Amino acid sequence: MRVMGVDPGLTRCGLSVIEGGKGRQVIALDVDVVRTPSGDPLHRRLLVISDTVEYWMDTHKPDVIAIERVFSQQNVSTVMGTAQAGGVIALAAARRDIDVHFHTPSEVKAAVTGNGNADKAQVTAMVTRILALQTKPTPADAADALALAICHCWRAPMIARMAAAEALAAEQQRKYKATLKAKAKAAR
């Protein structure tokens, strides 16, 4: 499975692509950070992010996109910018019929380090170790994008099993309701 991990942001947007193998084997294929000047108009910054992400999607052909879920912070403008960048990325994926999954920062930290409260240094150290990289990915946005991709790669089998179980439960519920409806109709 080829996963594109995205740590969305307006000033720095981390992008990565990894290939998942058997078990927990993962290989880094590419990583970068898109930067946009804070003084540029919002629509121009989103266009730069969109153009870059679309190029990555068309070049790397990911099977799935893993995006960090926006969480509440003190700075509302930062949250808004992060959400807008994430939305542009999700839209680009939808246009290409690529599945998108959102993961919270604590999910990603727990998957990569075993601790949902790990700091950036711990995440970077574990990403470097897991991917057997020669040097630590910098800035932190690059390491976070790789961590998102790793998290999704490792969680994908469970996500698929949960989706299958939910679909089966929905089908069984539909059949049960149909049976009840038929019995009620016959009792009339």
UniProtKB/TrEMBL annotation:
A biological process from GO: DNA repair
Enzyme active site: D7, E68, D141
Subcellular location per the Swiss-Prot or TrEMBL entry: Cytoplasm
Pfam families linked: RuvC
Entry GO CC: cytoplasm; Holliday junction resolvase complex
Chain residues that bind Mg(2+) 2: E68
Alphabetical UniProt keywords: Cytoplasm, DNA damage, DNA recombination, DNA repair, DNA-binding, Endonuclease, Hydrolase, Magnesium, Metal-binding, Nuclease
Catalytic activity field: Endonucleolytic cleavage at a junction such as a reciprocal single-stranded crossover between two homologous DNA duplexes (Holliday junction)
Cofactor descriptive note: Binds 2 Mg(2+) ion per subunit.
Top-level taxon of origin: Bacteria
GO MF entries: crossover junction DNA endonuclease activity; DNA binding; magnesium ion binding
Positions contributing to Mg(2+) 1 binding: D7, D141
Cofactor(s) in the UniProt record: Mg(2+)
SUPFAM superfamilies hit by this protein: Ribonuclease H-like (SSF53098)
Family assignment from sequence similarity: Belongs to the RuvC family.
Protein name (Swiss-Prot/TrEMBL): Crossover junction endodeoxyribonuclease RuvC
Organism listed in the record: Mycolicibacterium celeriflavum (Mycobacterium celeriflavum)
